[in-house]
Design a protein that fits this description.
nine-stranded antiparallel sheet; eight-stranded mixed sheet; single chain; 15 helices; elongated; 714 residues; alpha+beta
């Protein structure tokens, strides 16, 4: 108890001393920000320390003149100091009081959502072959720097800010969940080295903004000795010494693109989607550290529920009134009715004309049509978008010409869904709860899930350290999967299996990391002086790099800028997901008094789609490999949200068309002929079986008669 009182009694004295020392050795440094850690990382820590409560004006006022730090509108925030608080050799003292504090100079006095603030800090250094901790110094110098091998984000607890005329000019944070950092410090000191903290950046989230901004710090902070009362004798004066050195980091401007194949081994309606980000890295990193071997990133991954796209304005306007409404198993509840009392619906039944009695369909929305399995019923739609005339997806054509929905339009829908359409309060555990969970599935594709020593990919928070040679992105096409006849029938129907021409695509396998160096890549982009790309050039780039046609101009501009700045353009393919898009027949029943079966089937005016999205995507570190020597470089980059366009279905199978003079389509004749042929074949089989059965009966009757005759003769 006496010890605890003594510790509390000297808290302010220690704090002032620490700050004075850190001011001498700190100065003002630009901030750095890094990627998001799981929500659980900060939710688990509810400690309240006495130093958390101290007034920030008092903390700083005893050591600096606040008036010499001006408020400058538009100026970026900067790191003022990083503080190791109450470290001790004594495990009891250390466990009770050890903490890390960060002071941020905020010249623009910007208001931040401080619950989302984070710091990127190294969590491990080179380890021995047996897995034990080992400090690895350059043998050339006596005490060279440690070699960080991994960086992670740490959430920050907001402890307060300056007030009065200096309101919000300085902000005070405590780093949460610092056990691994404390363990590193203990191990370093036990081997005779300074306690080291590699702080690469700070990520701050402006109030009202969807994404955070990242600011570089790039500091290596070395601590030795102890504050008064925390050394070997409580009466000894402070021996704490802090020094700082500039740390290595790379700033990246990250953009994204995507590529969709026309088919997938999953079958009808499915396409492979390759998700890619790109950025430029200065040439000096390759010269100093070798080839780019690994890229570590983190993100939140979710998959949308069914979204509807239509060029039928009347249906679109009606559908907007019923977004997210769940129907019962046969669509009896909350039907979307026309003005004349009919009911709108969507199905993939390819019918023609009026007065047609519906048959089974693979899936249906808002109608009583039967489906082969219960999972063919779509209980609700969670997005509705109006587009121009809908055509088939073509990877070599501008998206606007295909009846696509821009990624920005879908992104805005996601951000505004909670306020406009949500029926429940359930939200995603990111972005301070502004995104409704209603429009997302309960899980991601099973094929996406990974968990190993380099990371974990799952629904929600995911992170992974991708290796250029190990984590290949694979896209298997429908024809590349060598489907059996029964698979073709199951996915595309009997007629397509017999007569259909399936889109031919090769299987694709790509490294997750492709580095484009201007000196030897003119075969892709042309030389660095190339100004405009022809349509043929763009299609060739799509084929070479597997990117979206609409993004080629931006990619070309990024390549030219990289070449001008002596940088290399890097494509980072971080995932392959399943994109689903299938044509939907828009079915508009006529007034029921005319006929219970009368309705209009409108073709090529609607489709449904489903895709994966990646929120708060952020690159954490790059790992270079120079003949087996690995160097990890922390990254400074703003996180981005990746929501790609919705595109219509591709033409995965084509039936032959039979046209007589006059350009009239008589392909229905083929279907009729095939159906008749099948019926005749079945009748023939039945007749053969019946005939064989009769012949068998005659044969057995003859045998019985023969046996009876022989018996009578005897």
């Amino acid at each position: 108890m006496k010890l605890r009182l003594k510790i509390k009694g000297i808290t302010k004295q220690i704090a002032g001393l620490f700050l004075a020392l850190l001011v001498v050795f700190s100065g003002v440094f630009t901030i750095f920000a890094e990627k998001t850690a799981p929500v659980e990382a900060y939710a688990a820590n509810n400690d309240v320390r006495e130093y958390d409560q101290t007034d920030v004006n008092d903390d700083l006022g005893t050591t600096i003149d606040l008036s010499k730090y001006p408020a400058v509108p538009g100026e970026e925030p900067q790191l003022y100091s990083f503080m190791e608080y109450c470290y001790s050799e004594d495990a009891f003292k250390r466990g009770e009081n050890y903490a890390l504090y960060i002071y941020v100079y905020n010249p623009s006095k910007t208001n931040y959502n401080n619950s989302l603030s984070k710091a990127l800090i190294a969590t491990s250094y080179e380890k021995g072959e047996d897995g034990s901790f080992k400090l690895s110094y350059d043998k050339v110098s006596e005490k060279d720097e440690l070699k960080p091998t991994n960086y992670e984000y740490f959430y920050l607890k907001y402890c307060g800010a300056t007030t009065g005329s200096y309101e919000n000019l300085f902000i005070k944070f405590r780093v949460l969940n610092v056990d691994v950092l404390m363990q590193n410090a203990v191990e370093m000191e036990s081997q005779g080295y300074e306690r080291r903290y590699d702080l690469s950046g700070l990520q701050l989230h402006k109030t009202g903004e969807t994404l955070a901004d990242e600011y570089h710090v790039g500091q290596e902070i070395f601590c030795s000795g102890y504050a008064q009362g925390y050394g070997k004798g409580a009466e000894l004066a402070s021996t704490l010494f802090v020094r700082k050195e500039k740390g290595e980091y790379v700033e990246l401007d990250v953009e994204h693109t995507f590529y969709r194949t026309e088919t997938s081994s999953r079958g009808e309606g499915h396409q492979n989607q390759l998700n890619t980000v790109y950025f430029s890295v200065p040439e000096r990193f390759f010269e100093d550290y070798g080839r780019l071997q690994r890229i570590k990133a983190e993100w939140y991954e979710y998959k949308t529920k069914m979204l509807a796209v239509t060029s039928h304005a009347e249906f679109y306007n009606e559908l907007l009134q019923h977004i997210g409404e769940v129907h019962d198993d046969q669509g009896e509840a909350k039907k979307i009715e026309t003005l004349n009392g009919g009911v709108y619906g969507l199905a993939n039944y390819q019918g023609v004309g009026n007065a047609f009695i519906p048959q089974d369909v693979d899936w249906v929305y808002n109608l009583n049509y039967p489906t082969p399995t219960g999972d063919g019923l779509i209980p609700a739609l969670y997005g509705a978008f109006l587009t121009s005339d809908i055509s088939k997806y073509d990877p070599y054509t501008a998206l606007a010409q295909q009846g696509s929905v821009a990624g920005n339009e879908l992104y805005d829908w996601i951000l505004n869904y909670k306020e406009r359409y949500a029926k429940t309060d359930e939200v995603l555990p990111i972005k301070d709860g502004i995104i409704s969970a209603e429009m997302f599935e309960s899980d991601i594709d099973e094929s996406r899930k990974v968990k190993n020593e380099r990371g974990e990919v799952k629904q929600g928070y995911s992170y992974y350290d991708f290796d250029a040679g190990l984590d290949l992105q694979k896209m298997e096409s429908w024809t590349g999967s060598n489907p059996a006849f029964t698979n073709k029938v199951e996915e595309f129907g009997f007629l397509a299996a017999i007569f259909g021409k399936f889109t031919e695509e090769e299987n694709i396998e790509l490294s997750p990391i492709e580095v484009i160096h201007w000196e030897n890549e003119d075969k892709i982009f042309g030389n660095k002086e190339t100004v405009d790309l022809t349509d043929a050039d763009k299609q060739a780039i799509v084929d070479s790099l597997y990117v979206n046609y609409d993004d080629v101009d931006n990619l070309h501009a990024a390549y030219k800028e990289a070449a001008a700045n002596n940088e290399r353009l890097v494509l980072f393919r971080f995932s392959t997901t399943d994109y689903y898009s299938e044509i939907a027949d828009l079915i508009i029943p006529e007034p029921l008094e005319l006929s219970p079966f009368t309705h209009t089937i409108t073709l090529n005016q609607a489709y449904i789609a489903q895709q994966s999205v990646f929120l708060d995507f952020d690159i954490i570190q790059l790992t270079f490999n120079d003949k087996g020597t690995y160097t990890v470089i922390p990254v400074v980059s703003n996180p981005i949200d990746i929501v790609d366009p919705i595109t219509p279905p591709s033409e995965q199978v084509k039936l032959p068309e039979f046209k007589l003079p006059g350009e009239t389509d008589y392909s229905w004749i083929l279907r009729a002929v095939v159906i008749v042929a099948v019926v005749i074949f079945v009748i023939w089989i039945i007749s053969k079986i019946s005939s064989a059965h009769k012949q068998n009966e005659i044969y057995r009757a003859a045998k019985r008669q023969n046996r009876e005759s022989k018996r009578k003769k005897k």
